[in-house]
Amino acid sequence: MTISVESTAREQAAAVRRREISARELLDLHLARIGERNPQLNAIVSLDEERARAGAAAADEALVSADRGGADVGPLHGLPFAFKDTHAVAGWRTTYGSPLYADHVPETDELIVERVRRAGVVVIGKTNVPEFAAGSHTFNPVFGTTLNPVDPTRSAGGSSGGAACALAAGMVPLADGSDMGGSLRNPASFCGVVGLRPSLGRVPEWPLYNQWETTSVGGPMARNVGDLALLLSVLAGPDPRAPQALGDPGSTFAPPLSGTLAGLRVAVSADLGGAFEVDHEVAAVVESSAAVFEAAGARVAADHPVLTEADDTFRTLRAWHLHAKLGPLLAAHPGALKASLADNIRLGEDLTGADVARAYTQRTALSERMREFFSPEGQGYDLLVLPVSQVPPFPADQEYPTSINGRPMQTYLDWMLAAYLITVTGCPAISVPFGHNADGLPVGLQLVAAHGRDRFLLETAAALEAR
User: Fold this and answer.
1) 84 a catalytic residue
2) Does pTM top 0.85 for this prediction?
3) Domain endpoint, select from 208, 224, 253
4) What's the domain count of the chain?
5) What is the 3-state secondary structure (H, E, C) of 360-386?
């Protein structure tokens, strides 16, 4: 097999292990693609070719040493990798998309980075993000705007927009990200790749300013579900520094995947019973999935859980989180943050203990309602199918869509409801490419399963992908 940047991550890693291609050669292929596409798309930032070449040489030498000692190398050995620019990488510029951190170089890796590095990747740089990962459109004053690889006049989504764009354009074989209100799922949908928001606790994070704040999670992105499972197998698993980490080892999620759609009970809803406005073409793509599931032997119903409190819950916890984390920074530099982010931070100033308590009480009720929705003793569904994003990729010169189907969006969060209403349930959700609108722009399908059923979700997504 001839390896190219379009080969799967599994094929690339296997070829390196079998000496069919060296890490140096694989890096050269990806650097050539980056040189070809990144000047227009602006997905990879802080690229350091010299350090990447040194890393590739070290990876090749490590493979020789492993052979001599009869040892094995990590599952991602030799793969070029660019970390999301909100993830601290020791010795590498990490800006968070903010001019205040334009020259920031961390001294230690955060846990996600530590695990990916240990798996053998060759670090090449970072992937672009919106300022402090706030908002589902990737632009910032440090590096500018990331464009959609399918149509460069459009948004690549966010906040993991650089990661999704780089994947879709063949600049990297795998990517990491994080997701609070859809930051792994939305850019995956916009760019036509796969993004997983794992169950709470599945991918532990450290260090955090608050280990008990659980709206944001780290997770994997890839061009296909099997590759995503490979990266999840590296990211997942307990760690003593993360007290809420689930106990399943990462190997639980490793490929191959062997799921089926036959016999599943599937609920399909384009708008959660009118909970949000959704573009008519996006809704049509979601609704068309019912026939696909039925043809594969699933039992499909037009149904959904009642998530009435989810909007207030998310907005309250998001404002509380942003104010706690970034409030002091805003106070010290009142004009240095984008207006939409500054406004959301300030929303946290007026929150009371009763507000936060209400949000957590509601979140508990939402979690219980989802448990019943997926429980054999309740509604008994295996899968919930929704839009990932309520709109197709919008023009890149807009901060966010101002209307959907002619209906005005009051805030820069309103068009993200389809993703963030699921956030506060704690359930795993995956974005899988499923169709296109009339302009040929990608539309992803959001599959949601019960908390803890990440392996089932991967297998189901793989079965849908193979349809």
Assistant:
1) yes
2) yes
3) 253
4) 2
5) HHHHHHHHHHHHHHHCCCCCCCCEEEE
